[in-house]
Amino acid sequence: MSPEKRCGMDREATARRAALQEIVSELSRTITRNGQRGFQRSFQALQAAVSISTEYIANFQQGIQEPPQVILRKLFEKLGATYIKLGQFIASSPTLFPEEYVLEFEKCLDRTEPVPWQVIKKTVQQELGRPIEDVFLSVDPVPLASASVAQVHCAVLRDSRKEVVIKVLKPGVEDVLATDLDFLYLASRVFEFINPELSRMSLAAIVGDIRNSMLEEVDFRKEATHIAEFAQYLERSGASQSATCPFVYKAFSSKRMLVMERLRGVPLTDLAAIQRVTDVDPESILVNALNTWFGSVLACETFHADMHAGNLLVLQDQQGRPSGQVGFIDFGIVGRVTPVTWTALEALLTATATRDFETMARALATVGATDTDVDVKMFARDLERLYTGMASLDSQVILERSRQGGALTAALGLDDAQMNRMLLQIVQIGNDHGIRFPRELGMLLKQLLYFDRYISGT
Questions:
Q1: pTM of the model
Q2: Where is the ABC1 atypical kinase-like domain (predicted)?
Q3: Active site includes 306?
């Protein structure tokens, strides 16, 4: 064996010993941090796995063989809050995960049985630090929404009589999240140690990003900051006449509770409902919403990265009169754009407008990670074919016609799966050419695809 090869092997052995020591230290810290809670959560996970396994065996005996992504999605739903959020992360990250998993996790249900109001009330009172009646004139005990991590109740403030919503973290969620995420991160480190090939895929780094992202989502102070930044942008840009976001009552909000102005309106995708609540042209509302959101991408540290129909409302005012304003709600999921990604995105958008597919290909190749030389001309031809296919899809999918009373009404048939299929095609073309895109670009493109489809349907 040559001295150079032996020296290389010694360096690798030293690096692996250091990595193993770090994993053992991480394991020790995790056990100390989670203790009994970790053992309880492990038992719950085992119960969930046994339940799904039993269901799988019963289906198999009946000749039904479900693919791995379906089984994993069902297991995630059984495991609860952390894994449902992880499923949502997978669904929102087509640049990181295989297509079949992204599409399957679009079905991951984030609807859970509500926690009784008397239990939630204790959290609200604890966060307020005073009797709940001192702040709220009334609170609806039936939640407006109940998800895996939080639930939302409508209320009226005592002093101002303003309508608000109270978003409250469910009891015990923080502990479960911390335990599960610690375990997932540690498992990724172990997998990388066993199979060094996984370290080249940055598995532990991806899981670390997931952990940071999910922990931000359950710290409502972060969400309040995102809303405040967006509100300041609206004021600076003069866009507050056409768009708004909920006012946050900081005096009543905390890490585990967010008290916000209640915005009433109809989904941005429901053209018939928009026409009922406002005389403003729906197309101009859509364009204003796109311009407002895109301006925030330029001007703010973060951008709203969850632009589905439920989070964009065409508003009515407090007296129920049409306003034509678009309300942006739920800033729990946000994205950040690095300078490199932004430079490439600018080139991409310019190329899209001019149908310059070679420039588009170069922009995507610049922002993506690649170990090979990209054939820009071939990449451009593939993008052009995709773009042509998307353009023909608009008239077939977006407009849905109803025959109620013999009249035709316009509606938009949009869903997350449809958005992801288009984005996944872009990602797949990139993969075919040796390009792996960062998650932030996927989040940006997905929001742009939403708006593109909204506007195409008007």
A1: 0.73
A2: 109-362
A3: yes
